[in-house]
Write a structure and sequence with these properties.
mainly alpha, 75% helix, 4 helices, 102 residues
Length: 102
């Protein structure tokens, strides 16, 4: 996935299989988080909210790509930055079972 980020940042074309694999992995991960949240872990609601924004930014980048344009770097930066924060928070919750944000 890092090669996707580097290619997108440089404005290079991304191989067609990468976005599909990336989207499928993201949807699977999101589904697992939703299942855990529905099972009672309300701490994950913030991850679900972040995932919605991350997905919308990814779709926006895809729309730019379909039009043959380069996505603005701000959208790419927000997508990657939020994804890193989301995974970091998910890791924090994974290894700190009884801890909440507030």
């Amino acid at each position: 996935m890092l090669s996707m980020v580097i290619s997108a940042w440089r404005g290079h074309e991304i191989e067609p299989g990468y976005p599909i694999l990336h989207g499928a992995a993201a949807l699977l991960g999101s589904a697992l988080v939703i299942v855990s949240a529905l099972d009672g872990d309300t701490r994950l609601y913030v991850n679900i909210g972040m995932a919605v924004v991350i997905i919308l930014l990814g779709v926006a980048m895809g729309v730019f790509a379909k039009k043959g344009k380069k996505a603005p770097k701000g959208i790419l930066f927000a997508h990657v930055g939020l994804a890193v924060a989301c995974y970091g928070l998910l890791g924090f919750f994974t290894f700190n079972h009884g801890v909440a944000l507030l």
